[in-house]
Design a protein that fits this description.
The chain has helices at 10-17, 21-28, 36-48, 55-62, 78-93, 107-119, 134-141, 166-179, 195-210, 225-236, 250-262, 280-283, 296-312, 338-341; strands at 65-72, 97-102, 122-127, 147-150, 160-164, 185-189, 217-220, 244-247, 272-276, 290-292, 320-323. α6 (107-119) packs parallel to α7, α8 (166-179) packs parallel to α9 (195-210) and α10 (225-236) runs parallel beside α11 (250-262). 45% of the residues are buried. The strands form two sheets. It has a six-stranded parallel beta sheet, sandwiched between helices. A five-stranded parallel beta sheet has the order 7-6-8-9-10. The protein folds into three domains: 10-62, 434 Repressor (Amino-terminal Domain), CATH 1.10.260; 65-164 and 296-323, Response regulator (Rossmann fold, 3-Layer(aba) Sandwich), CATH 3.40.50; 166-294 and 328-341, Response regulator (Rossmann fold, 3-Layer(aba) Sandwich). By secondary structure, the protein is α/β, with parallel strands linked by helices. The chain is built from 14 helices and eleven strands.
């Protein structure tokens, strides 16, 4: 008999310990919903039969490996990296291995990883980037493990979600620009087809409407430094006519700031700027950029808690948590008076 094959089954442990199969399973998954007495007795039986030390064997018996798959669009992106760090730290304490997969914002790779989640019998999946589609929804529904969506609202799926209040935070950012006298405001949104981009764009447009500003400029980027740089070049050469810009993430903002500087323009003298995601990427810029949103650390911690809660209570009602955003005013927004308000570029 191979060393990886358990000598007894989960039913054997239940019979020898005097507890139910489900209680034994909860002990194996480090659930908090087990009495200290039951945990002690069951752990003793598993130890006597050399069962507790073999994670693969335990996984084979209960049908799940102690692995949580995290699918992120770009692990080099600070927001994702910091959130993943919090998730890994908290789930490691619960006995789980966190496997990080990079989708490169590819719908094809996202679907492939979700198929692998079933193949490798992972305990749960955290999906950090996703382009909503009927195919994605169908794949999620076919999963045999919990899926928690972080920062993406997915339709046609009954799943747990940890979200930012993207709509409210975007409105807050644009209102801040308007109250500083800006009426020509451009928005560099995220990837078209994602809930995050749609919600932030909606907040931008509603703020303009509420303040009776008829003109709007919306461009979609791919969340990378390069797309932010291109947007900055377009502003500098006059292709984008505005006095203020609202950008959907920190990485694109860094590219935009560099392009404006390379063109000999300055922030906020030539263009005011506010963005989502306060992070070290923003802190390291020469310009002190005003930001909106919640921190990657906070959303990562809440996502890890959601994963833990779902693993401990697989059949409980699905939950959606929406985190408030915060406006951090720094030095990137210039106040315009009536004479300068109509000045372009």
């Amino acid at each position: 008999m191979s060393k990886d094959k358990p000598s007894i089954t989960l039913d054997d442990i239940a019979r020898l310990s005097g507890y139910s199969r489900s209680t034994v399973s909860r002990v194996l998954t480090n659930s908090s919903h087990v009495s200290p007495k039951a945990k002690t007795i069951i752990s003793r039986v598993m130890e006597e039969h050399h069962f507790t030390g073999n994670a693969i064997a335990r996984g084979m018996v209960i049908g799940k490996m102690p692995i949580v798959m995290v699918i992120a669009g770009d692990v080099a992106n600070y927001f994702y990296a910091n959130a993943i760090s919090q998730i890994e730290r908290m789930l490691f304490k619960k006995g789980y291995l966190v496997a990080v997969c990079t989708s490169e914002y590819s719908a094809r790779k996202e679907l492939a990883y979700l198929k692998m989640a079933t193949m490798f019998r992972v305990s749960a999946v955290v999906l950090m980037s996703a382009v909503d589609s009927a195919e994605l929804s169908a794949q999620i529904r076919s999963l045999d493990c919990p899926l928690i969506s972080m920062n993406r609202r997915l339709s046609d799926c009954e799943i747990d979600m940890v979200l930012q209040k993207n709509y409210d935070s975007a409105y807050l950012a644009v209102r801040h620009l308007i109250r500083n006298g800006h009426t020509d405001i451009a928005h560099l949104a995220g990837i078209q087809g994602t809930s995050t981009a749609a919600e932030r764009t909606k907040g931008y447009l509603l703020a303009l409407r509420d303040y009776k500003i008829r003109s709007s400029i919306v461009r979609h980027g791919d969340l990378t430094w390069q797309s932010g740089y291109q947007f900055g070049e377009d502003f500098a050469n006059g292709s984008i006519d505005c006095t203020a810009v609202f950008i959907s993430n920190d990485t694109m903002t860094a590219g935009f700031v560099k392009a404006v500087s390379d063109a000999g323009r300055s922030i906020p003298d030539d263009v005011s700027l506010i963005c989502f995601d306060y992070s070290p990427v923003i802190e390291q810029l020469a310009v002190q950029v005003s930001t909106v949103g919640c921190t990657a650390q906070k959303i990562g911690i809440e996502t890890a808690r959601m994963v833990t809660s779902r693993l401990e209570c697989p059949d409980g009602p699905k939950q959606t948590m929406e985190l408030d955003g915060e406006l951090k005013e720094r030095n990137s927004v210039k106040r315009l008076n009536r004479r300068t308000q109509s000045k372009k570029g």
